[in-house]
């Protein structure tokens, strides 16, 4: 059975919508310590028609730390349902996990998707207690474009401030395979999403590092040919220089897709991205 599931998962990743198919295959493999989706399709930004899902670990009396997971897809693709495997994965590690949608290119351009993320943080802070989460222990996680969104929300304070979110709400970040220092834009997705902004320096997370940044884990694969690992190294160096606690994980021989798919149960052992990010977040947020 296990070999069959892994074969199906491999086919899913080769298809046109691999996250959706991988989430379907993920359900065939037991695990994640009783994690379950406790809310689906909750509207958090009515004007934009945006919804989110909430995943939770096995029920307990104590409030749990919270992860808001922002999915990737080059700002042009992705959905909360497609990344159910990530919601389940982080919930299985002991976090109440929020997976929100955000608006995509070409319907919007920078900074609309960051404004959407800020609204998701606002909803989480105001509502997560009813699902067993601790609103005073919120972290951001994400992969690829989602890691970019998470970095901007953690580093540039004006997005949360404009949404009415108190400063310091994001206590930590665990970001996988993200672009953080990639101007000038040399590929189409970056140009389409960010290139029209008149002040390009304002699109780059690395330019917003201050001592007030939350602790961060930055993970990447050495064989990532979609987002150069230099992005993670550069941001880690800038954070360290500012005195911000940071951990850099470079997984030898691993690709951009490897880190995302290793959040799923069928591929959980292919990189330690989930275990490393969960351990880091528990060290910062507690259990």
UniProtKB/TrEMBL annotation:
Name the Gene3D superfamilies for this protein.
alpha/beta hydrolase (3.40.50.1820)
The protein's matches in PROSITE patterns, at most eight in alphabetical order, are given as: PROKAR_LIPOPROTEIN
Q: Which domain of life is it from?
A: Bacteria
Q: List the keywords (alphabetical).
A: Hydrolase, Signal
The keyword Hydrolase is annotated on this UniProt entry: yes
Q: Where is the BD-FAE-like domain?
A: 52-239
InterPro entries on file: AB_hydrolase_fold (IPR029058), BD-FAE-like_dom (IPR049492), GDXG_lipolytic_enzyme (IPR050300)
Q: Does the keyword Hydrolase apply?
A: yes
How far does the signal peptide extend, from start to end residue?
A: 1-17
| GO terms of molecular function | hydrolase activity
Q: Which Pfam families match?
A: BD-FAE (PF20434)
Q: What is this protein called?
A: Alpha/beta hydrolase
